[in-house]
Amino acid sequence: YLGTRGETGGEPFTKLNISGVTPPVLTVEGTFDGYTVNDIFVEGDYAFLATTNNSKEVLILDVSSVPYTEVGYYDASGSTDAYSVFIDGDVGYVAQGRYIRSFDTSSYVGARSSIGSERTGWWFANISQIYGVDDYLFLVLNNDWYELTIMDISNPADMTVTSQTSVNNQQVLDMYVND
Fold this sequence. Notes:
The chain has about 180 residues and is mainly β. It has no helices and 16 strands. The chain has strands at about 1-5, 15-20, 25-30, 35-45, 45-50, 60, 70-75, 80-90, 90-95, 100-105, 110, 115-120, 125-135, 135-140, 150, 160-165. A five-stranded mixed sheet has the order 4-5-6-7-11, with no helix packed on it. Strand 8 and strand 9 form a beta hairpin.
């Protein structure tokens, strides 16, 4: 899956098939347009897109057949773009500026309701990537004193920051967390 954060025209979401070994061969299975995509999380036949759309910060696509179909969305509070999205069972999490917002994913169809929200970071901070393991959400930030924050998400309606650290006084845009 590719998300190309660019203009809303064109095809910012692409699903590719990779076949063969030497050399691997790429073929486009399908595309979806109309949104600028900052991050993608795939759960089964559904792709969750973190977008710059002010009324659909998270877009839910059914990617089981072409053409892909928009089946649901989450409209987060405020007008800040969604930068990253993570789904954990019946709860979704989206990074929106310096906020983590949790939302209902017990169904993927229609408007999804908010569960909770928690702020982290300084005034100009942006959470650039999120990833969940067990009851914790790992966040990396840019434009902040801290590069890594860990949040307890055992209660998605009342999330709390448990730890923060400054590693090297640099901006962080991506991470990998070993399960």
